[in-house]
Amino acid sequence: MLLGEEHQLIRNLARNFGEKHIVPINKRIEKDTIPKELYQELGKIGFTGVIIPPEYGGSGFDTLSYVIILEELARVSPSVSVAMDVQNGLVEYPIFTYGTEYLKKKYLPKLCSAEYIGAYALTEPQAGSDAANVQLKAEKVGDEYVLNGSKFFITNANHASVFIVFARTSKGMKRHEGITAFIVERNYDGFKVGEDYKKLGVRGSSTAELVFENVHVPEENILGDIGKGFYIAMNTLNMGRIGIGAQALGIAQASLEKSIDYMKQREAFGKKIAEFQGLQFQLSEIATKIEAARLLVYDAAQRADKGLPLIKEASMAKYFASNAAMEASRFAVQVHGGYGFIEDFDVERYYRDAKITEIYEGTSEIQKLVIAREILK
Ligand SMILES: Cc1cc2nc3c(=O)[nH]c(=O)nc-3n(C[C@H](O)[C@H](O)[C@H](O)COP(=O)(O)OP(=O)(O)OC[C@H]3O[C@@H](n4cnc5c(N)ncnc54)[C@H](O)[C@@H]3O)c2cc1C
After folding, report:
1. What was the ipTM of the complex prediction?
2. What is the CATH number of domain 231-376?
3. Which atom of ligand 1 is nearest to the CA of 359?
4. CA nearest to 61, candidates 104, 98, 16, 9
């Protein structure tokens, strides 16, 4: 897709940022985690507050810019990309869209500047794909709510100062009713974050359990209407899914680039392996799928900018792009032969990192359910 000058500049900015600030420390990020200094650099360049207007401390860019930034970050580090997907799409977006003026002023400037990192806590042991099954309890006591329960698999957990938490405030007539969205601060009494899980991929991103033991949250920290949190959770995930589509796109693009470079230099049977038609055909298919994925992701982003419906488009973008990432990274490993299997070549990481894009923010099966529901309604 041809980008206008402004979006091309954004791409260059993000690419240069990745090469300068991420590539040199990538191994450290993956072995340990995203360092504080990198968050600060992301804050300085405006990537921790991409779509939030300047009056709340953000960069005021459009959603297309947001996905281009996530794509470019994922090209070098899917761990950093998902941290920024959550910060921008799953934390700042719902605060900006559903928060009171008080909440926007209190939290957005600190999130946009990277003083605060945010996390989005929906998943529970019995509420993953079946997200309406939220059990974390929030009981009203005076002008506060008291939260008890746990959340699983929360990205950014060990870096975050604020958490968007979905809790059950009542038993609704329907399962998805009676869920409310709260902003919980890390320093509230009774709130604990577990140790990071050891993961197959995106190892540099923090993912952990949250435990709530009589955590008192002021009523003013409610986002949107009481009992309507499920709608906030789902609408927010649309934004996040476009971001994960962009993350998958970045992984696919990196896989393609490494494959092309290697095919042009590796020789077998007295020829460059790029000359083998068996590999060329696979390369062509993958390159075409990546372009198609890019169109889907950018189209969904542009729909967000125009305020058009995008539930189906966001799911299609995530579903298709994550599939492209899996295929492209598998090809990249295969084309590198034995070298693809060892850590010195980045492609083994792409292969590991691609998998999560088919799982979080709604598995591929759930994306297909959403797409079918939208088509058939
Ligand atoms: C690294 C990582 C980071 C994450 N970050 C976050 C986060 O920041 N915040 C957050 O809230 N959650 C987060 N998650 C949770 C993630 O979104 C869930 O793991 C995911 O939605 C799947 O839920 P589950 O693990 O409970 O799987 P399940 O829902 O138990 O699904 C198991 C399998 O059954 C399939 N399945 C389920 N229902 C259907 C159906 N109706 N039809 C067909 N197939 C179906 C699924 O597709 C899947 O293959 C994260 C997870 C991981 C691994």
Report:
1. 0.99
2. 1.20.140.10
3. 20
4. 9
